[in-house]
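Dear support,

Our group has been running a series of protein-ligand predictions, and this particular one with adenosine-5'-diphosphate is the one our PI (initials K.S.) wants archived with full inputs and outputs. We had some confusion internally about which version of the output was final, so please treat the block below as the authoritative record. The input we submitted was:
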Amino acid sequence: MYDYDLLVVGSANADLVIGVERRPAAGETVLGSDLAVHPGGKGANQAVAAARLGASTALLARVGDDGHGRLLLDSLRSAGVDTVGVLVGGAPTGVALITVDPSGDNSIVVSPGANGRLAPEDVRAASSLFHASRVVSAQLEIPLETVVAVASSLAPDSRFVLNPSPPRPLPAVLLAACDPLIVNEHEAKVILGDSAIGDDPEDWARILLAKGPRSVVVTLGAEGALVASRDGVSRVASVKVDAVDTTGAGDAFTAALAYRLGTGASLPEAAAYAARVGAAAVTREGAQVSFPTAEEVDAL
Ligand code: ADP
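Confirmed final output from the archive:
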């Protein structure tokens, strides 16, 4: 009855990466390595992660009519993502300009470009995609009003998963649609605001849940995650791996969790699977290229 296990609505960026000895100060020019260009953006990352696991996946996004847009469309299609919802034009493709020094510290400038032009009307015009999708996931690298439109465009039986990244305070109507809201420590703290919270992630999960989401997941890096719903709060064990690069771990986790919820898994079951996917992703360099297949997750 559904054509897609998962519809991702979100950003697609070209990540332009240059290695430098030292990141430049104001007014300074430094020489760096050859430029590396990688497909990225949280929306495209989640879509690629889900498709690689075998989920039938569509992406609703906007890229520019330019080389970076074509690079993104190619990487999505080669991962098996349906790009029928990827709109082209209106502004240049979003880019992240990233300089990385030998210690791994980076400085990043993001130009949202076409991502900033993904509008509520684009969401309304894609209603057939919403009606064809069991689960819809979103992040916050597109305009907030577009994400609010996503939450009000869901088919009656489909489920909404939000990773509010980059974090900002969320309107009640959006919080109420989340099942679950997925946050890391930093995102939890921003969404909870200054309401003096302690150091216990179980408390953050409970306080977040009281703000309206039907369920909450807090990701804890190498410590795993925890899930919270009306049934209570429970821990999701971490999977021990040798971490090489944690870029994209949260995107892989969210995509895997959303996909498994759509196949009928309970929230703790889906989160346990997602923790394995996140762990597999950190064993390899890069974002999209580090995302595992279902066979690689089983072998972990
Ligand atoms: P984000 O990238 O959004 O900050 P996290 O770093 O919490 O998200 O990672 C998401 C999930 O990926 C974690 O909940 C965990 O399951 C898995 N993960 C991340 N880092 C590691 C690690 N070093 N070892 C094992 N699993 C990890």
